[in-house]
Amino acid sequence: MPLRSRGFILISVLFATTLLLTSATAFAWFARTEAKRAAARENILKCRGAAEIAAGIAGKKIAEDANGYDGFDEPLYAPGQDVRIEIGNYAVTVHMTPLNGKMPLNAILLPDGVTPRAEYRAAWNAIWEEAGHVELAQRVIDFIDVDDRQKLGGAESEKNINRPLSDLCELKALPEIDDAILWGDEEHPGGVARYLDVLGGQKINVNVAEPEMIAKLDPEISLETARGVASSRLSRPIKSLDDLRRVPGFPPALATKLANVIGYESTDFLLEMRVEPKGGAPRNYRIRVRRSKGSCMIEEWEG
């Protein structure tokens, strides 16, 4: 065989060998990558399963809390007090927080879906005024009410959803509302989201609401008085109108005036959860549950 032919064959063999080695390496890398992905997917599913079980256990503890109020002074909800749950090979840490400290946006209208609640009117206007857009107070009412009749100061358009909100971000369908208004900027920290919640019951839990939220409820409530409420509830939880009237500086007549929008218990709770599997990557979850009729059901899930 000519030397030239033997050289060509040798080059071909070397090329084929290199190609096979490259293919084998690529296949091994692909196999390892797929194995890692499969393990990661399995870990995600198992961690989520453990989180669901833990949410059920935590929800039972919340449902059994029947002392007439929900506040941060309770051991179950106190800052830094976590519940540790062992589920097979998973260690789950849960911190439970009572919600309903904000104005329930979908409850600012009466059951007819059209008429704004008189008790929330002052707070509603004050929230938008703080955001620097008081003109949007009535515009948003027209956006979510169920009819298509324009109210004084409002506006009706094709962009109006004319139904309760499922998420606060739906307000961005209004061209006048952007992220800065919703979530705040340097001039208006927190935005309207600091005071508004889409989910929740009909009332604001005065045992967990920020002083700034309490002060928004009526012009007669100063921020100093609202801070007094927040301080008082740590030593003596508020369970009734009489308890609220006894708070130093709180106008007694206001307790009656705001009776339909002030509450003492929470319907909604946040579960901040960390699931740590043995030999696997930990995962974090934020789960919102609603308490009703002696049980808790999951409303929202993040993670």
Automatic annotation (TrEMBL):
Gene Ontology CC annotations of this record: membrane
Signal in keyword set: yes
This protein's UniProt keywords: Signal
SUPFAM superfamilies given in the database record: RuvA domain 2-like
Signal peptide extent: 1-28
Record GO biological process: protein secretion
Top-level division of the source organism's lineage: Bacteria
Name assigned to this protein: General secretion pathway protein GspK
Organism encoding this protein: Synergistes jonesii
